User: Fold this.
Amino acid sequence: MKERIKNLTEQLNKANHQYYVLDDPQMPDFEYDMLLRELENLEAEYPEYAMPDSPTKRVGGEALSKFEKVTHPVPLMSLQDVFSLEELDDFLDKILSDHPGTSFTVEPKIDGLSVALEYENGKFVRGATRGDGVVGEDVTENLKTIFSIPMTIPNAPPKLIVRGEVYMPKKSFEKLNAIQEEEGKPLFANPRNAAAGSLRQLDPKIAAKRGLDILIFNVQLAEGVSFTTHEESLEYLQRMQFKVIPWKALTTVNRINAEVLSINENREQLPCDIDGAVIKVNDLNLREELGATAKFPRWAAAYKYPPEIKPTVVEDIVIQVGRTGVLTPKAVVKPVRLAGTTVTNATLHNQDFISQRDIRIGDTVRIRKAGEIIPEILDVDLTKRPANTVAYVLPSACPICGAPTKRDDDGAFLRCTGAACPAQLSRNIAHFVSRDAMDIEGLGSSIVDALIEKGLLKSAADIYYLSLEDIKQLWQSGETAAQKLLTAIENSKQQDLSRLIYALGIRQVGAKTGKSLASAFGNMDKLAAASAEELTEVPDIGAVTAESIQEWFAQPQSLELIEKLRMAGVNFESLRAVTDNRFAGMTFVLTGALTKFTREEATEQIESFGGKAAGSVSKKTSYVVVGENAGSKERKARELGIPILSEDDFLAMLQ
Assistant:
């Protein structure tokens, strides 16, 4: 098995290099997924044979409590900015007047977050942000989630430090903002902010989902290796399997200017956002001779592209309803060419954004691409405002289903309150059937969307009215798969009330709150009839959550959903009333790899005895249950003097 695990690791790492670095995928996705699954299973069975550079380790480890400070062995200097070709020519002429024929490299300036990657004997050991150039932050675990960063390098020097720019590709940025919009969260303004925020997540699992990438642009240190030019060092980095910034080596001012302008003109073809071009002296000995000021090297400059701003006219304002019910206004504008593309609409974010700028239909506005990606209205030209325009106000009723809209208590978003709003249907049903809710295995998002498209699902309750014939038509394989799904749907009717409450998707009501409500009221009808006073008597239920629950049960769409679930025979009673309160008032934290039960099973046991399971250690923690390879949570528990339990100790308490 050791040899098979080694071979699988090498195959998958090679495939990752071809896909993420060379942009030349050779292995079909299905084959990759099957080999990765085989490796995961083998590593689970034989953990002692797992390789340190296994691709299974790149999905994010345990969350950190903070980022440690790192002093860079070689400072990460910043560059002087120039904002016109005249300033760029002055920079070039100063060097060329004393050193005619000097070669310069010209590279796109990636708009991301600068980092240093450290390798010892070919193994990636640490990665840190630039910080102030001398001291940065250790973000090693988050950098491990970037597949274009090699974890091991064959034939590497004993010590190697390289510098690169972490960025969020445009496609990843668009996907992330779509998710943010669906979940009613603020949109990221530009890819750089999104990349910086993702790289500084304390939980690497979040960073792993963000699709970050990196381009390497400098050798900071290569022990025992020497170069005469910057171009040689970039070619060396390519041989070391890094994803290297594209560059050109040029020797005349005219050709350098032309390349700087060409990068700007073709920026839309790049997978990432840029904000300029970097021009560097190619000869490394000449760099030493030119030296640096207190702030910048004298041998490099960053040409910053000015943002392109143009006037246009707001022809209409339309409302989109996201999958979480958030109403997002969008300005339809007279087509205008910006940053290489034709813009026909611009985001208006929310009512506050519209009101602060007083944007109205018919207004002439100035528009730009925020971060060169999202079209954004900067301001209104009031001198060109037509007569009889009126201030725009978002609707009080959902334009899709007619249910009342309500502004979030904790933000600027307006949200549809309809439980059966068609715009939210796919997401609502996906949530309803999810693992922590009704746990209907096999009813994935693609099947849900297919059933909606065929008109078979208009609410989550319709799941329980599907026939064998309805489901069979979704599979070519026919009756076996359909019957299996139908059985899973039927079995879910017996889930505990707590799961059903969570499945309803009531704002502010998570899985834990669902358990508290089920325990407190015992059945759905009592919960639906509960007063605000009765609701706030339940632990962890505040006034905002109580109001959200009452508003949900007051909606006609909600009442219709509840009645259809009742008629289908879905359980409305709590099956987990706490009769043994041995853990009442206690808070447990689980950490490390548990072997005798899953975290979900341990959490259910704790809650069944009236206790609470928390995700972080504090002075209020009663016990910390540790499994294998427990990390910072165990250390913090020892520092605070909190009792630590092995799995056997915990089992003894349960028995």
Observations:
- The mean pLDDT is 87.
- The first strand starts at residue 69 and ends at 71.
- The chain has four domains: 2-57, 71-304, 418-569, 587-654.
- The domain at 587-654 is CATH 3.40.50.10190 (Rossmann fold).
